[in-house]
Amino acid sequence: MKRQGQCRVSLMLIAFHKPYGVISQFTADDSKFRTLAGFEFPKNVYPIGRLDADSEGLLLLSDEAGLNERLIHPRRRHRRVYWAQVERVPSGESLGKLERGVLIQGRKTLPCRVWLLKPQPELPPRDPPIRFRKTVPTCWIGLELVEGKNRQVRRMTGAIGHPTLRLLRAQIGDFRLNDLAAGKWRILNEWERSLVLQPMRRPASDGRSSTSTLTPNTKWARAEPRPPK
User: Fold this and answer.
1) Which of 41, 108, 148, 173 has its CA 20 to 30 A from that of 74?
2) pLDDT at residue number 103
3) What is the pLDDT of residues 71-116, one digit of tens each?
4) Distance, CA of 53 to CA of 19 (rounded, Å)
5) pTM
6) Which pLDDT belongs to residue 208?
7) 179 in the Ramachandran plot: left (φ > 0), alpha (ψ -120 to 50) or beta?
8) At what angle are helices 152-159 and 92-100 packed, to 10 degrees?
9) Cα radius of gyration (the chain)
10) Is the Cβ–Cβ distance between 73 and 199 less than 8 Å?
């Protein structure tokens, strides 16, 4: 029960489209990369989890204690969806290896969902551009993970012979990055917050997640689900 005179502290959850070449911290280190300090975030927020400097996409920030443990701790197995542009087109057998788990740094990754993105997304060009070879095609795949080891996606695709050229986190829980432009952020409303906090779905009878496959529109933007009236 709230005592008289007490007021509810307003807490923030922010979605940020982290660009390439930005580290997921506010203080500079010895690297050449930019930090979060250059994006004029509200005071007292901190990043929840991290994205490597050479990865892009959805990064959450908050001033709420406990969210980091709730969303990032391995035992929570909170869903995160990544889009990886890899060299060559992986076969069904190769994607199956990723789904069942591959050995990286002496440990096997947890089972996950992996699929070819159809249609292939048309993202804005990256600066600097990815390595391009005329004789080697590229392909975008989606991966839904419930763990987040250091450079895990890149190590996973490398383990099956399809190096990752570009990596973007597209979704956390049920909240999608959509058309939030690189370098931009916004404070989420209560409905969007509930999408972020959606727990892991119960696996279907075939062992896959019961969530529907996330497929991109060719123009990248997607319509976000709206709260029921």
Assistant:
1) 41
2) 96
3) 877 777 889 999 999 999 999 999 999 999 999 999 999 999 999 9
4) 8
5) 0.83
6) 40
7) alpha
8) 130
9) 18
10) no
Mean pLDDT value across the chain: 84
Please give the structure tokens belonging to residue 201.
Answer: 């779905």
Residue 192: both structure tokens together = 């969007």
Distance CA 54, CA 99 (A): 24
Which amino acid is residue 211, in one-letter code?
T
Greatest C-alpha distance within the chain = 71
Taking the alpha carbons at both ends of the chain, their separation in whole angstroms is 29
**Domains in the chain, ordered, with CATH?**
13-196 (3.30.2350.10)
pLDDT at 10: 61
DSSP 211: S
Active site residues per annotation: 52
CA dist 157 to 28, 53, 186, 203, Å? Answer: 30, 18, 32, 23
- The pair of structure tokens assigned to 188 is 């989420």
DSSP secondary structure of 47-83: EES---TT-EEEEEEES-TTHHHHHHSGGG---EEEE
Convert the pLDDT of each residue in 193-221 to its tens digit. Answer: 999 998 655 443 333 433 333 444 433 43
Characterize the bridge pairing of strands 56-62 and 164-172. Answer: parallel
Helix (H) or strand (E) holding 205: none
